[in-house]
Design brief:
The protein is an all-alpha fold and 194 residues long. Helices cover 74% and strands 0% of the residues. The chain has helices at 9-23, 30-36, 41-47, 52-75, 79-96, 104-109, 120-142, 147-171, 175-192. The protein is globular.
């Protein structure tokens, strides 16, 4: 790590992801993202000359890969372990932020795009969800689930966990995660018995 006081590109991206996870994309300006990352606005535009959409796209990709790294590692022990890690990761985020932060990928995905336009951040969100689904489906298939069922269950897991994170924020409780975890674990157990 360098001793330079200049903010790194990754720190700006991570700060943007955190800000989007708390406020959504529309409610967050590039100036606020830079401030949140403790970065000068000029540095932010240096790294992201296309502005807010470019930074948001990178924040979504950053989050996607951060979660995927955790999933890949935990899925080595099987789909149930991967699910637990996925749930634990989001539980930690909502609890440590006192229910103020959720998933920046979901936050970007639910934004209304400009008419006739598909912003790159939205495309990145779709790619991230597909990546997470693919990792889960591959693990389910490797542990005996039929291919079609594995794909459907992987989609259900990602959708359920993302929705549950939003519910936790609204209810200011982790109870939705507990309930979702129990049901998804049962579905995985049924799918891999083969």
């Amino acid at each position: 790590m360098t001793k330079s006081s200049a903010p790194s590109r990754e720190r700006i991206v991570a700060g943007a992801a955190d800000m989007i996870s708390r406020r959504g994309l529309s409610a967050t300006s590039i100036r606020e993202m830079a401030k949140h990352a403790k970065a000068p606005l000029g540095s932010t535009y240096h790294y992201f000359p296309e502005g807010k959409q470019q930074l948001a796209t990178e924040a979504v990709r950053f989050t996607g890969e951060w979660v995927a790294r955790s999933l890949r590692k935990e899925l080595e022990a099987g789909p149930a372990a991967g699910l637990r890690a996925f749930l634990d990761l989001w539980r930690k985020i909502v609890v440590e932020s006192d229910f103020h932060a959720g998933c920046p990928v979901l936050a970007v995905a639910i934004e209304e795009p400009p008419a006739g336009e598909i912003p790159p951040a939205l495309t990145a969100a779709a790619d991230v969800f597909e990546q997470w689904e693919g990792l889960l489906a591959d693990s389910l298939r490797a542990h005996g689930a039929e291919a079609g069922q594995a794909a459907q269950l992987a989609t259900l897991i990602v959708a359920a966990v993302e929705g549950t994170v939003a519910m936790c924020r609204a209810k200011r409780s982790t109870q939705p995660l507990d309930r979702t975890a129990e049901q998804l674990q049962a579905l995985i157990a049924g799918a891999v018995k083969g």
